[in-house]
Amino acid sequence: MKHDTDYQEAERRQFVGKQIEARGVRDQLVLYAMRKVRRELFVPKELRAEAYEDSPLPIGSGQTISQPYIVAFMIEALALQGGEKVLEIGAGSGYAAAVLSQIAGDVFTVERVGELARRAAANLKKAGCERVHVRHADGTEGWAEEAPFDAILVSAGAPDVPTSLMRQLRVGGRMVIPIGRNPRAQELIRITRAAEDDFQREDIADVRFVPLIGKEGWESEDDGWQAHPPRVIQTRPAMSVSLPGLIAKKAHVFPDLKNVDLESLERRIGAARVVLIGEATHGTSEFYRMRARITRRLIESKGFNIVAAEADWPDAARIDHYIRHRDVPRSEWTAFARFPTWMWRNQETRTFVDWLHKRNATLEYEKRTAFYGLDLYSLYNSVRVVISYLESVDPDLAEVARQRYGCLMPWEADPAAYGHAALTGAYRKCEQDVAHLLVELLQKQQAYLTGDGDRFFDAAQNARLVANAERYYRVMYYGSRASWNLRDSHMFETLKHVLHFHGPDAKVIVWAHNSHVGDASATEMSRRGEYNIGQLCRQYFDPECYSIGFGTNDGTVAAASAWDGPMQVMNIRPAHPQSYERLFHLTNAPALMLPLKGRTQEDLVGRLMKPLLERAIGVIYRPESELASHYFEAKLPLQFDEYIWIDRTSAIHPLEVLEVEGMPETYPFGV
Ligand code: SAH
C-alpha cells in the first residue's frame, strides 16, 4: 500500500475544515473519518487532481462518487457511536463505505452495476478497508443474510422506502435515505425504528441523487433523470441569527413602493453611465414597477437617455417608434407576440412606455429617451426589417439580401433544426451569406446616412443580429454554455453599439433578469464557463457601471410550466433555508435597499460573502422541483452593487387585447 504523503494529509485536513466542518458538520467521528479516507483512491486516475474539491465526479456507468459534504452530512445523520454493523446501498466507488468503515465495525455495501461493484472492491482493498464487504446485487432487497443492521445508508434516490430495508433495520437503528416521487429532487429522510412496528420519520434536507433502480425502487432510467450532479443543502440553518438584524440596520428599509426615497440610491449611482437593473423573475409586478421608478428618476435627474431591455430588437423598435414619436413604415408582424408574450405586453410596461411617450413629446428629438432590445431571438423578423429597409433605400441591394437570406428561409418554423442540419452537413451553412450581407450593408453607411440615421442604425443592428443568431442556432447544438455566452455577448455588443450611436454623453439603463445582470463570476455559472452581460459590463465600464439585483420571499408570479405553455399565476414557495432570500426574509422588513459597496457596509459584506443559494425564476417556474431547477449558488456581494428586497410580491398584469383597442396603429402593444 502506498503511503499517504504529508502534503495530501494536510490538504485533506484543510478540505475537511473548509468544506465539511465550516458548513455545519460537527460530529467528531465523522470529521475524523473524512480526514482519514484518501478520496483520490476512489476517483478515476484522470480526475485525481479534483479529488479534494467538494463536488461529485463521474466514476463510469453513468454514476458518480458522491460529493464529500453530502457523504459527511448523511453519515452524521446516522449518529454512529462506533463499532456498529452498517448496510450501504449504492456502493458506487466505495468511498462512502470507506468513510463509514472508519467509524463502524463491519460495513456491507451493495452495488447494482457489476463493473462498479468490482471496482469498488478493488478501491477499498487499496485503501486498506478490510471490514467492508461488497456485493453485486439489487440493494433494494437489502442483504438478508447479514440482517439486522444498526444503521442503513442509501446512496441513491428511491420513490418510497423499500420495505425490505425497513425490516432489516434493528430496533433502535437508523436509516438515512433520499425519497421522492420527483426524480429531480428528493427529500433526505431519517427513519428511526423505535419499536418492532414503530418507524419514525424526520425530513432532514432537500437533495438530488441518482436513482435507486430495482425491485423496490425505480423501474428503469426514464427520461426524467438527467446526469445532474447530486447536491445537498442542509436544512438546519447554520447562519448566525444576528445576520438578518445587521442587514436591516445597514439597509434602507421602506414600507412599500409608493413610499421609497430614491435620493440615496441616486447618490450611490453617482457618475455611472451604465446602470443595470435586474429582476428575480420575469413576471413580478413589484420588480417592474420599482425598476420603472428608478429608471424615471435616472432619466429625469441624471440625464439617462437610453433604456435597453432583454427584449427582441425589432419588437423593442416598435416601442421606440412610439415613444420617440418617430415616423416609420408600419411593420408586418405583431410586436411581442412570441412566447413569453406577458414579459413585455403587460400593464406595468405599458404605464412606463406611456409616460415616456408623453415626456418625450415635450423634448426636441435629440433629447428624447430611446428604447432598444438586446436579445437575439428575432432572426426572421430581423431579416424582414433589413429587406424592407433596403427596398426603400437601395432596391438592388434588397435583391441581394433576399438571395443571401434565402439560405435561412426554409428553417423559419424551426431555426434549431437549421443548426442541426448545418452541423451534420445535411444542409449548407449560411454563415458566409449573412456575414457578406452585413459587410455590404455597412459599406453603404456613408451613402445611406444622408437619410434617416436611426433607420440605418436599426437595419445594421438587425443585420448584426441575423449574423449572431445564425451562429447561435449552430452552437446551440453543442450545449448551453456556448449558446448562453453567445447570447450574452450579443447583448453586450448591442449595448456598446447603442451607446456609440448616441454619442459620448449617452447613458443607458439595462433591464434584464438577475442572471444576466448580476456578475456571473460570482455565481456557479462561472464553474460552467458561463459569463454574462453584467460581468462584461463590469470588465469594460467599471467604475462607470452600477448593477442592482432584486429578490423576494413569496407571493405570486406570472410564468409558464413549460416552454410555449400558457401563462399562469403561480404561488412562489417561501425561500429555501440556505438561501440569501431566507436571510432577507428574516429581517422582517417588507422591503429594503441594501448597498453592497462602500466602507460602511464592509463588516456586513464580509459576512454575506459565504456562498448561499439564490433563486432565479424565469419565464418558466416549476415549484415542484424548485431546489433543483431554480436555485444556484452565489456570493451576493460580488454579484451586485446593490440589492433590492421586496418580501412579498405579486404577478404582473398581462395586457388583454381589449385594453389596447382604440390606440393608434403605431401603438407597440396593439394587435
Ligand atoms: N456511495 C457512492 C456513490 C453512489 S451513487 C460513492 O461514495 O461513490 C449511487 C449508486 O447506487 C450508483 O453506483 C448506482 O449504480 C447504485 N444503485 C442504484 N440502484 C441500486 C440498487 N437497487 N442496488 C444497489 N445499487 C444501486
UniProtKB/TrEMBL annotation:
Subcellular location field: Cytoplasm
Taxonomic superkingdom: Bacteria
Keyword Flavoprotein found: no
Main localization, broad class: cytoplasm
Protein keywords: Cytoplasm, Methyltransferase, S-adenosyl-L-methionine, Transferase
Gene3D superfamilies: Biosynthetic Protein domain (1.20.1440.30), EreA-like (biosynthetic domain) (3.40.1660.10), EreA-like, domain 2 (3.30.1870.10), Vaccinia Virus protein VP39 (3.40.50.150)
GO molecular function terms attached to this record: protein-L-isoaspartate (D-aspartate) O-methyltransferase activity
One cellular component term from this protein's GO annotations in UniProt: cytoplasm
One example of a Gene Ontology biological process annotation: response to antibiotic
Cross-referenced Pfam families: Erythro_esteras, PCMT
Reaction catalyzed: [protein]-L-isoaspartate + S-adenosyl-L-methionine = [protein]-L-isoaspartate alpha-methyl ester + S-adenosyl-L-homocysteine
Residues at the active site: S66
Bilayer-spanning residue ranges: none
CDD domains listed in its UniProt record: AdoMet_MTases, Ere-like
PROSITE patterns referenced in this protein's UniProt entry, alphabetically: PCMT (PS01279)
Record-linked HAMAP family: PIMT (MF_00090)
Role played: Catalyzes the methyl esterification of L-isoaspartyl residues in peptides and proteins that result from spontaneous decomposition of normal L-aspartyl and L-asparaginyl residues. It plays a role in the repair and/or degradation of damaged proteins.
Family, as annotated: Belongs to the methyltransferase superfamily. L-isoaspartyl/D-aspartyl protein methyltransferase family.
Protein name as catalogued: Protein-L-isoaspartate O-methyltransferase
Organism: Hyphomicrobium denitrificans 1NES1
